Amino acid sequence: MKRTLISGLLAALFAAAPAFAFEPFVVKDIRVEGIQRTEAGTVFNYLPVKVGDRFTEAQAQQAIKALFGTGFFDDVRIEAEDGVLVVVVDERPAIAQIDFSGVKEFDAKALKEGLKQLGLAESRIFDHSLLEQAEQELKRQYLTRGKYAATVKTTVTPLERNRVAIRFDVTEGEAAKIRQIKIVGNHAFDEEDLVDLFELTTPGWFTWYTKSDQYSRQKLSGDLETLRSYYLDQGYLDFSIDSTQVSITPDKKDIYITISITEGNIYKVSGVKLTGDLILPDDKYRELVKVHAGDTFSRKALTETNKAITDALGNEGYAFANVNAAPKVDRDKNEVAFNIFVDPGKRVYVHRINIAGNERTRDEVIRREMRQMEGGWYDGEKINRSKVRLDRLGFFDEVNVETPAVPGTTDQVDVNYNVKERQTGNLALGVGFSSSEKVVLSASVSQQNLFGTGNALTFAINTSKTNKVYSLSYTNPYATIDGISQGFDAYHRTYDANSLDISRYKTTSTGFGVRYGVPIAEDDRINFGLAVDQTKVTTFSDSPVQYKDFVDAFGNQATSLLGTIGWSRDSRDSFLYPRKGTYQRVFLEVAVPPGEIRYAKALYQHQKFFPFGDYSALMLNGEVGWAHGYGGKPLPFYKNFYAGGIGSVRGFQQSSLGPRILNTDGSRDSIGGNRRIIANAEYFFPFPGTGRDKTFRLSTFVDAGQVWGADQKFSFGDLRYSAGIGFAWSSPIGPLKLSVAKPLKKEKDDKTQTIQFQLGTMF
């Protein structure tokens, strides 16, 4: 039997004539040879003929091209043997495994996923060209990490059943470090000050973590734009970057960057003119323009002017307003004039408000925070206000808003809110350490977004020696459609001062209360409530005489009817990570008849955030507390104010500041007081290298505070001060807070508390 070669590889690659011409014939049978993993049916599917058909040369070429196109075969031949069509294939091997050796910079699992996207993965057909692409891409990734000496070698090992094993052998080497950043041509500013503007830097204390001492083309481009913006903001309108040279030493360990610049001259603004369709009042435009004749030119001020006018028009419904400033430069006088052209465009209204990303939170919980309504005129301020209200819920890590035009219309937009939900269930564990205090533990379970309804439920358990608490609280922030909140609290609390440096006594309180909150303005609420409390007081032989006298006069158990009323204003931009805005509250608690005790306790707090840069903020906080008995009855000693420790004056032991009493053993215990002042200044900034990640935050702080008794004269000279650093991290297992504080002013008997941390577990 003689086989006739009908067509081969050249026919598939070059569409040439077959190696041997043949006469068409009728196919008696079809046979496939050479397959190991590929099903014969796969080959049959690509053949344009079946048994009994007449087979031609054109069909042969068509079949070979189709089989090559599958990528399964290295070679394909079609032969004829006494009317039998024989398809002979040489299968490509399959990839059995992919291994990495010497890879430390990247996760092997992530690398395999990247190779899979290139088409190189286990069980797939092996392709040498894809392997070469993968090798080059891995080298490129090492270059982006500053590892210029990294080498990548690939080994392909044949295995049984026409399979191969691929191995990447990597020698990473050390990352090249930036040893010098030099700026040439600067005269107005010191080179050191300009380099400090850059994200790229030479090796320092934190560069092991931030990697900012490793060269990156993208980072350098960003730094050059920062440099350009800095000069333009200082009036250097003709500033230019002439060249940028990046050189690496022969051993590929050190990088030197040289930037040549031309500063030019400082330009003054000679005039500003507004033209176009000026639909807003003239005085409004004058208020919005931040660039004035006689000012030194600043691109930042010009950009702020354009944005302010655009936002103002957006608040009037002109969502697509266009504001452009055309400069007219006089280089002889070093002056520039601006013609700001205003085109408000068409007034538009909101077609739909769409919400995405809320897998647990119900739509209604989000929509009730909307201040922009569907069908109403577009209002940029209301849209941003709605975003802030969503941020302040505390249910979301991110809230993003977009306003795309409705296709096919010129006067409608959709408002799309996309939220990234955070875990709102919290199992909080608290631990405190000090030089004189034992470990104190506490725990609470809370869900601030119960079943996605926006309602809050908290069950707290505190089993510390000092404060044993079992409490249940529930709050519905929208008991009515108008936003009136309703809640209740039930608790059983045992407070034992023995484990703190507070005069010895013990109270056991059980109570239940209801409360309401009524919004009176966008940021303002009035809160009021009523509760019944029963407190039993236990004194001991070594308790202060004041405590014993109180129990003797009024008994060791009292039932109180407590009325509360308060006002709060919250204009902070975020509940979790505020950077600007104000929080104020006034709170008054009064024990009223027919209760057995009479007292009033008031608290005022004022907190303000000031943004710095893009990610940092300064927080100033002040609190004043006052309490006093009335109706011929004194303030119960267990209602006294205390200060010191986390939440008030860090650096001092919990509840240790204020009046003290001398014990028989010579020690002094705190007894609290009826007046308290707390002041805090804290500067929050991102952890170096985390960029826009808000989950890491560092802070530096200064605290001040003190407590005075009823028989003490108030004096600011009695205040205690402390300073320290803090760290906060919204970790995968929950929020972590750590502070290290040192007293700046303390007296001989003051108790210090240096380290405090708090850890919670999210669920």
Describe the protein in words:
With 763 residues, the chain is an alpha+beta fold. It has six domains: 3-91, membrane protein fhac (Ubiquitin-like (UB roll), Roll); 94-171, membrane protein fhac (Ubiquitin-like (UB roll), Roll); 177-262, membrane protein fhac (Ubiquitin-like (UB roll)), CATH 3.10.20.310; 268-343, membrane protein fhac (Ubiquitin-like (UB roll)), CATH 3.10.20.310; 349-421, Roll (Ubiquitin-like (UB roll)), CATH 3.10.20.310; 425-762, Beta Barrel (Porin). It contains 13 helices and 38 strands. Strands 19-20-21-22-23-24-25-26-27-28-29-33-34-35-36-38 form a 16-stranded antiparallel β-barrel. A hairpin with a 3-residue loop joins β8 and β9 (163-171). Mean pLDDT is 85; it is low at 9-20 and 432-438. This is Outer membrane protein assembly factor BamA. Keywords: Cell outer membrane, Membrane, Repeat, Signal, Transmembrane, Transmembrane beta strand. InterPro entries: Bac_surfAg_D15, BamA/TamA_POTRA, D15-like, OM_assembly_BamA, POTRA. Part of the Bam complex. It is found in: Cell outer membrane; Membrane.
